[in-house]
Amino acid sequence: MLSEIMEMDKKYYMNTFGTRLPAVFTHGEGINLYTHDGREFRDFFAGIAVNLLGHAHKDFVAALREQAGKLLHTSNLYYTEPQTRLAKMLCESSCADKVFFANSGAEANEGAIKLAKIYFYKKGQAHKNEIITLVNSFHGRTLATVAATGQPKYQKPYKPLTPGFVHVPINDSDALQNAITPNTAAIMLEMIQGESGVHPCDAEYVMTLRKWCDEKEILLIADEVQTGIARTGKMFGYEHYGITPDIFTLAKALGGGIPIGAICAKDAVAAAFEPGDHGSTFGGNPFSCAAGLAVLDIVGRERLVGHAAQMGDYFKNKLNGLKERFPVITEVRCIGLMIGVDFGGGFASGIQSELFKAGILTGRVGDTLRILPPLIIKEADIDAFTDTLVKVVEMQ
Ligand SMILES: Cc1ncc(COP(=O)(O)O)c(C=O)c1O
From the CB of 104, is ligand 1 less than 6 Å away? Predict the structure, then answer.
């Protein structure tokens, strides 16, 4: 069956993902995933920071079943309870006053960019339409978010790019200051860059840029698509920095595996979106919002914010111990359960494939191994991971 699926995929699926890892997953439970041929994997990547509750979480599945049996979709011409309740819950647990639901991270970011532009347009300052983002950022795959993303490899074939984006290196206040002009509408950033290999912004840098945003009437947009919903040991990544953004976006973990995105904003900014200015057919439908509600409910009941912080500390200590033992590990960056492990000499690729052979799923960018486990992970799971990592590193 594996070869049959691989051949069918090759024939019928657009080849944007290259040759995928040889596994056809059929089901999962907790942090485990199972293939059609009975192999068991431990999921230390959570579908790229999505499955925060692991797989087939009983209460989550029950909530999805209940909503699916009642109402999957109606248009946004009507009210639905899950949409309103999820918006309320997100506002009550964050700095936002209003929410708009999209279907993905890129779409939420696209909406946030539109919101920043329309905010100044409606103030009679249409010239303020430039957005500053960071080098090595990742904001999505739509045309505007590709232009926002500070990585030429994603942009090259899609020129001319959507205009109005300027990129500056992370944690470089001088470069940021030089990039700000009277036309700057917003600074958009991931507080902790995910796709580039877990690179956090410095606290001082974020505080300085918040101050400049206030002084120069610039909006601060936090892309919390990867950091949001407890991943970093706080509900939202910005909480690590003692500041609040004017707009932040969510996706990934918010739906626990069901596609959803969210633009969250403070009242004064959110008010710029008036009837007809933005919209979505699927965004905010009752099924995806019921998923979001169940995720937030379970995160609260199972105290997953604190648990992620605790497990993150445990993971960090163990990985730093390995760094002492094995010089091939050059750096460990760990913010809650958002983890990047740097290897010297191009070893990360081999380490990742040996971990896969040993039944462990991880991610990788360049020479950085990325670890983003479900937040329900336990110490014993981390011990099993590091024991395997030791064996794999010793083999290199
Ligand atoms: C920080 C960040 N923003 C945006 C996106 C894009 O999200 P999506 O793939 O749901 O469009 C991602 C995806 O990895 C991300 O990590």
Answer: yes
Distance (Å, whole) CA 386 – CA 326: 13
Q: Of how many residues is the chain composed? A: 396
Active site residue 122: no
Q: What is the CB neighbour count within 10 angstroms for residue 93?
A: 15
The residue type found at 347 is F
Instruction: Report the pLDDT averaged over residues 330-352.
Output: 97
Nearest alpha carbon to residue 58 among 304, 229, 254, 256: 256
> What element of type H or E holds 338?
strand 338-343
300, 85 in Cβ contact below 8 A?
A: no
> For the sheet containing 25-29, what is the strand order?
25-29, 32-35, 40-43, 360-361
- Expressed in angstroms and rounded, the spacing between residue 116 Cα and the centre of ligand 1 is 19
> Distance from first CA to last CA of the chain, Å, rounded?
32
Q: Is 236 a catalytic residue?
A: no
- For the CA of 141, the closest atom of ligand 1 is 11
Cα separation, 115 vs 130, in Å, equals 13
Whether the predicted pLDDT of 314 surpasses 90: yes
Residue 252 annotated to the active site: yes
Residue 190 CA: nearest ligand 1 atom is 1
d(CA 250, CA 264): 8
Ordered by where they begin, the domains of the chain are 2-56+303-395 (3.90.1150.10), 71-301 (3.40.640.10)
Q: Distance between CA 141 and CA 150 in Å, rounded?
A: 12
pLDDT of 1 higher than 90: no
Cα–Cα nearest to 372, from 258, 215, 225, 264: 225
Given this model, what pLDDT does residue 320 score? 98
Give pTM, 2 decimals. 0.98
Query: Residue with the nearest Cα to atom 8 of ligand 1?
Result: 105
pLDDT digits (tens, 9 = 90+) for 181-240: 999 999 999 999 999 999 999 999 999 999 999 999 999 999 999 999 999 999 999 999
